[in-house]
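Continuing the batch. This is chain 6 of the set; chains 1 through 5 are on the previous pages. Same settings as before, nothing changed between runs. Recording input and output for traceability.
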Amino acid sequence: MRPFYLTICALLLFQTNSGITQSLKPFIGQSSIPSESDLICPIQNYLGSFENSGYQLGDTVHDFTLYDTAFRSFTLSESLKKGKPVLLISSSYTCPIFRGKIPIINQLYEKYKNQVDMYVVYTVEAHPNLDISPYFGKVNTGATNIKENILYRQPIHYGDRLAIIKDMLQNVQLDVPVIIDGPCNEWWYHYGPAPNNATLIDTNGVVRIKHAWFDRDPDDIFCDLISYLQPGTVCDSIPTGTGKFTFSMISDSVIYGQSGSSLYAVARIENNSNATVKIEVRRLLNNMPAQWSSSICLDVCYPTEVDSTQISLKPNQSMDLIVDFFTGPIADEGSVRIGLKNIDDSQNRSIMRVKAITQDVTDVKSISENQENFISIYPQPARSSLSIYSDAYSYYQLYSPNGKLIYSGAFDEHILLDIQNFTAGIYILKLSDEQGKYTFRKVIIQT
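Output for chain 6:
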């Protein structure tokens, strides 16, 4: 940590040279360049409200120094010395909301980069693969990350965090400079443990815009910046009128998986009208066995205890509605029913009904060992193809690790499935006969 008297001297020198009156709170975070081998400090889960986290409007913030991927430093007080406000946007590659907002971040940067210094601050992984999400207190990799193959563990070393950022910058076009929270995540703790918040700091170090989510209705980052930079300007970016939405299932309404796994069902909400539609989304039924829970993901992913929210879709905009099931260690089933209602047109409504079923799935042995059970599935683990033999069963269904139906059909004793483009993981095979009797088997696929 930087010695206190050096911090005071630096601030006094800053005030003298800049002509700007500052009273930033004491320095936090890195006092020296981090090493790639530095361990990431234990991450404390944050299960509270993002609106209440971090600094609020009118608060004075702490000074800090962070580094980019080339280890070039950024110090808040030095940036404010230029006489421009600073906009800080928290991020992580495993946050689908952040990834979806990158085009808007780039547009904002292009429009206001001469008036505002903007930085994306990379923090902890929001939805790491296999590891606990700090915003859920349990593993929640997320349907979108699985679909897009954004599967990263929570970093152990600072170098692991750098590697993820470098992957991100190769795969997305992000025009805004990226600076990286230090190994002990002090920026994240102080500026708000949230996956994609936004904080605008004026030249006196005071928060003038605070969004729990960077740009989510009713907050509009463009309008708020215009109002700050051009006081008195009226801004309304939402088209008026009464819009309508349509609803359709993308996944099956019944999903299968292994006990203790996380499963998901996906639907799509679309606005094909020429006006904005405001939609109330409410979980009407949450029939969960012991040690199970569910959560809703829309424009953001909500904690398990949140039952309702409101979204807005602009003309020709669509949004996925995802229900995550966090299942328990014992085979069971749970169901969720969600109601959707157009706030301005009570006749425009829909219902989403989904069920998750888990089984205690057994491993599959070789042909000779398993002949007495009339089932053989090999090789295990499988990499490019999967053979299924059975005299007892005639129908099959293959589900992804998160319950999505991939293959299904009938077979006569044997079938060969192409799996060479599948991601690695434990898949579930359901075999059934003409009378409807069925069994489950575990299939391990490696890349």
